[in-house]
Design goal:
Blueprint: H1 8-22, E1 31-34, E2 40-42, E3 44-46, E4 51-57, H2 65-74, H3 79-82, E5 86-91, H4 96-101, H5 122-134, E6 138-144, E7 150-151, E8 158-163, H6 175-191, E9 198-201, H7 211-217, E10 222-227, H8 237-253, H9 261-269, E11 274-275, E12 278-288, E13 291-304, E14 307-317, E15 324-330, E16 342-343, E17 349-350, E18 359-360
Helix pairs in contact: 2-8, 6-8, 6-9
Length: 361
């Protein structure tokens, strides 16, 4: 499997090896457009079934887990059998420049997931052209979420999350939206007991500038996948495999009949809604001159010399919205702390005794 961060050249080499095991295609035959910095954007069409599914990943360059999951899907020995009734169109990385630089935005500093209507960026135009020409029956919009999401009460992190986007400001339950909910319900049923945390549900406020909302407004069932975080899975290896399994389930579910509309909606709405309740490290009961404090630490991700580094940053003190951490340190009963907490001017925070330091992935 690819590591969490890979250069675009690394991705191209890896993807070519996968193509060699499929049908011997070469990347140059798969170019469907170019990024701002003239990197090739690839599109792969496989299968010849009647149901057409369009899946794209890494429109946010620093969200690689779903691209890795797609690669795992393509490496399956029974891929041909899985797709015998499906025509699958995959754009493995829509934002090559962001992927190479590990940024959410593209090289023009634009969030491609807010460019569905304006189409101001070459990458957005590529996706729209594929959407218009391919005319999919389903769309899978593949993303990765930050490590801040968990249940409303903060008791458990969200390792996977999904959304059947609204297609209008009234959030009407169109036939397309019910189909998307059915796909998500199928994933939730099959994977719910395999996640290290919860499968969460995103807020469905409508924004026509978001790609998923735009596609749903065109009555194409669209499912937003979000690869989340739990525990020490900063490599996102564990969640990448979960997304791979979710894709398998989703591709099967487009053929299964769903129950009555009300049953589909009830099942979908039973998936817990998330909140931004988590930090990476939560230090409780730190004794400062001003009294006891709870310190909130989040890792800033930065690529340097081809490696992804996680830098601990103090993002708040005694924040009421923070309910938990992927690592919780209660200094009221921690004898290992040597009072060696250092906060730099740029809010980087370190402690040798608590093992709070920069690490690479």
């Amino acid at each position: 499997m690819l590591p969490r961060y890979y250069s675009y050249i690394q991705f191209e080499d890896y993807f070519q090896k996968i193509l060699n095991t499929l049908d011997g295609s070469v990347l140059k035959d798969l170019v469907i457009g170019e990024s701002v910095l003239k990197r090739s954007i690839y599109g792969l069409k496989i299968g010849s079934g009647k149901v057409k599914v369009l899946a794209w990943s890494q429109m946010h360059g620093n969200e690689s887990s779903t691209t890795r999951a797609i690669c795992e899907l393509l490496r399956r020995s029974d891929l041909e059998h899985m797709l015998e009734n499906i025509e699958l169109y995959i754009i493995p990385i829509l934002n090559p420049d962001g992927a190479d630089n590990w940024t959410r935005v593209n090289a023009n500093n634009v969030d491609l997931n807010r460019d569905a209507v304006l189409l101001s960026q070459p990458e957005s135009i590529v996706l729209r052209k594929v959407f218009d020409d391919f005319q999919p029956h389903y769309c899978f919009n593949l993303h990765g979420q930050r490590s801040i999401y968990g249940s409303k009460n903060g008791s458990i992190p969200a390792q996977l999350s999904f959304l059947a986007p609204a297609g209008d400001k009234n959030k009407n339950l169109s036939a397309a939206r019910i189909k998307a909910m059915h796909v998500i319900n199928s994933i939730n049923t099959d994977l719910n007991h395999h996640v290290n945390g919860i499968i969460g549900r995103y807020n469905d406020d409508f924004n026509i500038n978001c790609v998923g909302d735009f596609m749903m407004s065109n009555l194409v069932p669209t499912v937003l996948f979000e690869a989340g975080h739990s525990g020490d899975d900063y490599s996102r290896d564990e969640v990448s495999i979960l997304v791979y399994k979710a894709l398998q389930i989703a591709l099967k579910s487009v053929f299964t009949s769903h129950l009555l509309k009300v049953a589909v909606v009830n099942a979908y709405e039973s998936i817990p809604e998330m909140s931004k309740a988590y930090v990476d490290i939560w230090i409780k009961n730190y004794k400062s001159p001003a009294g006891l404090k709870h310190l909130c630490i989040q890792f800033h991700e930065q690529v340097q010399d081809g490696k992804l580094y996680f830098i601990p940053i103090l993002i708040g003190v005694n924040r009421e919205d923070v309910l938990n951490g992927h690592r919780v340190i209660d200094l009221s009963d921690d004898d290992s702390f040597k009072n060696d907490l250092i906060v730099e001017d740029n809010f980087e925070i370190y402690s040798e005794s608590l093992n709070i330091t920069i690490f690479a992935n």
